[in-house]
Amino acid sequence: MSDMSIGRLSGLSGVKVPTIRYYESIGMLEAPPRSPGGQRRYGDAHLERLRFIRHGRDLGFGLDDLRALQDLSNRPDQSCEEADRIARRQLLDVERRIAGLEAVRHELLRMVERCSHGVVDECRVIQTLSDHALCEHEHGEDQTVSKAG
Amino acid sequence: MSDMSIGRLSGLSGVKVPTIRYYESIGMLEAPPRSPGGQRRYGDAHLERLRFIRHGRDLGFGLDDLRALQDLSNRPDQSCEEADRIARRQLLDVERRIAGLEAVRHELLRMVERCSHGVVDECRVIQTLSDHALCEHEHGEDQTVSKAG
DNA sequence: CTTGAACCTCTAGTCGCTAGAGGAATTAGG
DNA sequence: CCTAATTCCTCTAGCGACTAGAGGTTCAAG
Q1: Do B126 and A59 count as a contact with CB atoms less than 8 A apart?
Q2: Number of folded domains in chain A?
Q3: Using CB atoms within 10 A as the burial measure, which of A18, A42, B93, B121 is most buried?
């Protein structure tokens, strides 16, 4: 399973080819040896590392967190307090985002349910956006909901 | 309430000063008249529009959607079908993201609950990330969970 | 040995802001 | 009226985590 091309590594890891090169460029993934012609040749260690990153990204960890966790896993004798702390922080973050999205979902539901399917002037969707008093949504301090990739 | 400075508009709308200028630069907010010295002077229409944008952003709409919705609200006689479609799409998107985050939350909970608080080598957090087989999480096609701003 | 897919580097773009430099205008107080 | 503090101005660059595309090279199958 050694001497994988970047395409094969991509297929096995679920990480796109340009993303793998990007990870290398920012030091998330060790630069592999090259073929005589200059193409990347990966081994199993790369595949493992990339799966670790992919899995962590799926769980919403930032690349910095994953770098820290990866460093920790290379020092198996250390206390896992730090790893625990990072994971708990991430959990709290996810829970906070879920709560925010639930509130958003609630208001969106109200909007579309009350839409009379008539003309814009009577449209609940537009009205709700225009007049904040029509809804129950609280403005957070400066937190905003953002799109997922 | 006319002739507001950008700072006052910011305070009343909850949108930060640089963000207001950014909105102007990308055509989301009409450029206001200027004072003799060249500073922006806003009226009530700007405040209303900005609150509309702010509210929409809080609900996770993209600026393109908000531009479309804003355009619609300027044509009150048109059918609100389009507005309805945009809002429903947004609702589906939010629901999809909630579902994704719930799965993520579930796995994070398992991770931190099973952490033995010992050394890294036995740490569930690291193990789960390293070995995908240890968890129940399914990799989506290429969807990833991203941070909120 | 040819062909076509996969690879290479590099730059620039995405979204929605945010930060900072370096300077001009405004406003409140004395 | 003058000063000092605050707010405002433009401009460029940066964030995270990629994604897209141009223009060229290498590899693997037949």
Answers
A1: no
A2: 2
A3: A42
**Cβ neighbour number for residue A34 with a 10 Å cutoff:** 10
Closest residue, CA to C1' of C14: A149
Domain edge (last residue) among B37, B60, B83? B60
Domain boundary residue, one of A55, A73, A91: A73
Q: Count CB neighbours of B15 within 10 A.
A: 22
User: What confidence tens digit (pLDDT) does each residue in B97-132 have?
Assistant: 999 999 999 999 988 888 878 788 888 888 888 876
The sign of the CA dihedral B36, B38, B42, B46 is positive
Spatial distance from the CA of B108 to the C1' of D10 (Å)? 46
Residue A43 Cα, gap to closest chain B Cα (Å): 16
In this prediction the ipTM stands at 0.81
Q: What is the CATH number of the domain that holds A17?
A: 1.10.1660.10
